[in-house]
């Protein structure tokens, strides 16, 4: 039997299509490396950080809740038809007179409990705005610290690479001196061990840098395959308050956490007022229009009118409410007492945390000064070693060892400088001025 040439053609196309799909699925999208300054990173996080976007959605829901609670005070008009064939006295299912066309309007004029609930919803919306600002401060601090971490890891990796190069030269020179009999063999082993440790440090810093760039990209709202690298730009140090007490006062005045608690207390107080006002009367505006059909009423009424309308107010007086409203008011008052205790505790905690943060800044600045002094000493020792080598008084191996020591002091200084910058950011976060300082 002759085989159709269509079969291998279709099979070949299927195989090619399958390979294309497999390659598309298996080959990941190329990662994008973005280089940013600290200011650009903060601005990007404020636009697309996932946690901040979620907080803004909650704030939007709180604003819509105000409209929902205020709905009873908005006029509502409904129109329809109540046309029906009646047997006996003309009456529709809901008890009103049957009509060809009917329209109804209703609106709350006086409802004190609902008015307090509207004010409570407005206060909750303000509290949601404060919570969003608090989340925004947290995002800015996290992005700034991640940025500084990556920046410090980059500098440390460069210094560690220079140290490896210097130690590699020390290993070669030491091996040469051992071969000439001017050094013991154990000195060569010591130099090789120092080089091995330096290479291990470079590998560890490289892995930390990769993880830090990925974490920073995620904090800015990018994908897991992207990376963000700090731009090489000089950045002036941020300013902090001059004294510890000034820092504490500013932290208490600008604390969004305290503002959120105060907003919750105000909302609960309005809830108590709403529950206590349940015994007050309620006044509603009501209006109705109906177009009647003659065949429904001709046999029952001597006088018939086609167009019928009414407009007035409906007043209801609560006579017996039970104990629910008073119990709910008592619950809200208990919540207010808890919130006041939490406010006092939060004030004390902010005071203690701010004092500790300020003292930590002074401690890190002292450590940085010591690290800078050690670095200056190592650089001066390297300069002396270079001069002595030119005079033939010290070997090249000693110069390379001094150069490796200088690179090690650079690493220590970078760590101390990074700790100081993070401590400054933490002080500004406590005072609520971090975002303004980084813009």
Characterise the protein shown here.
With 439 residues, this protein is an alpha+beta fold. The protein has two domains: 31-69 and 111-280 and 318-438, Outer membrane efflux proteins (OEP) (Up-down Bundle); 75-110 and 282-317. 68% of the residues lie in helices and 10% in strands. It contains eleven helices and six strands. It has helices spanning 6-26, 38-48, 50-69, 112-179, 185-219, 244-254, 256-276, 294-297, 324-390, 396-431, 434-438; strands spanning 33-36, 76-80, 101-110, 227-230, 282-291, 307-316. It has a four-stranded antiparallel beta sheet with strand order 2-3-5-6, with no helix packed on it. It has a two-stranded parallel ribbon with strand order 1-4.
User: What share of residues are in beta strands?
Assistant: 5-15%
Major sheet details: 4 strands, antiparallel
Distance between the termini: 80 Å
Helix tally equals 11
Helicity level? 55-70%
Biggest sheet, spatial arrangement of strands: 2-3-5-6
Tally the beta strands: 6
Task: Give, in order, the helices and strands.
Answer: HEHHEEHHEHHEHEHHH
Sequence stretches where pLDDT stays below 50 over 5 or more residues: 1-29
Regarding CATH, which class of the largest domain? Answer: Mainly Alpha
Q: What is the CATH topology descriptor of the largest domain? A: Outer membrane efflux proteins (OEP)
Assign the CATH architecture of the largest domain. Answer: Up-down Bundle
Q: Which geometry do the CA atoms define?
A: elongated
Structural class: alpha+beta
Overall tally of structural domains:
2
């Amino acid at each position: 039997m002759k085989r159709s040439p269509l079969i291998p053609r279709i099979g070949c196309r299927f195989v090619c299509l399958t390979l294309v799909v497999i390659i598309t699925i298996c080959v990941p999208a190329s990662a994008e490396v973005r280089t940013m300054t600290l200011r650009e990173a903060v601005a990007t996080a404020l636009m697309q950080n996932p946690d901040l976007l979620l907080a803004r959605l909650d704030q939007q829901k709180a604003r819509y809740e105000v409209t929902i609670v205020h709905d009873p005070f908005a006029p509502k008009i409904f129109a329809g038809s109540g046309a029906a064939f009646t047997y006996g006295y003309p009456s529709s299912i809901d008890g009103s007179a049957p009509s060809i066309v009917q329209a109804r309007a209703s609106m709350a004029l006086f409802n004190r409990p609902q008015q307090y609930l509207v004010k409570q919803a407005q206060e909750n919306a303000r509290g949601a705005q404060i919570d969003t600002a608090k989340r925004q401060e947290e995002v800015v601090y996290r992005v700034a610290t991640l940025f500084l971490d990556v920046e410090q890891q980059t500098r440390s990796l460069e210094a560690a690479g220079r140290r490896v190069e210097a130690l590699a030269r020390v290993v070669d020179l030491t091996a040469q001196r051992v071969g000439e009999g001017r050094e013991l063999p154990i000195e060569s082993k010591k130099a090789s061990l120092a080089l091995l440790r330096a290479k291990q440090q470079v590998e560890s810093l490289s892995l930390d840098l990769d993880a830090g760039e990925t974490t920073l990209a995620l904090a800015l709202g990018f994908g897991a395959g992207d990376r963000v690298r700090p731009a090489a730009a000089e950045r002036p140090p941020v300013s902090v308050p001059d004294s510890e007490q000034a820092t504490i006062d500013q932290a208490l005045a600008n604390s969004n956490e305290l503002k959120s608690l105060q907003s919750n207390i105000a909302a609960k107080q309005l809830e108590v007022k709403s529950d206590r006002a349940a015994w007050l009367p309620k006044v509603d505006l009501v209006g109705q229009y109906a177009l009647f059909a003659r065949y429904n009423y001709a046999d029952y009424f001597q006088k018939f009118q086609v167009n019928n309308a009414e407009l007035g107010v409906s007043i209801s007086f609560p006579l017996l409410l039970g104990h629910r409203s008073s119990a709910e008011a008592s619950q809200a008052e208990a919540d207010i007492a808890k919130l006041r205790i939490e406010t006092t505790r939060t004030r004390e905690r902010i005071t203690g945390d701010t004092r500790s943060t300020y003292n930590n800044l002074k401690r890190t600045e002292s450590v940085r000064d010591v690290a800078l002094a050690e670095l200056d000493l190592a650089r001066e020792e390297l300069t002396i070693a270079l001069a002595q080598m030119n005079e033939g008084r010290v070997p090249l191996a000693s110069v390379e060892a001094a150069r490796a020591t200088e690179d090690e002091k650079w690493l220590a200084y970078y760590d101390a400088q990074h700790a100081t910058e993070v401590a400054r950011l933490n002080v500004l976060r406590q005072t609520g001025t971090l975002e303004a300082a980084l813009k």
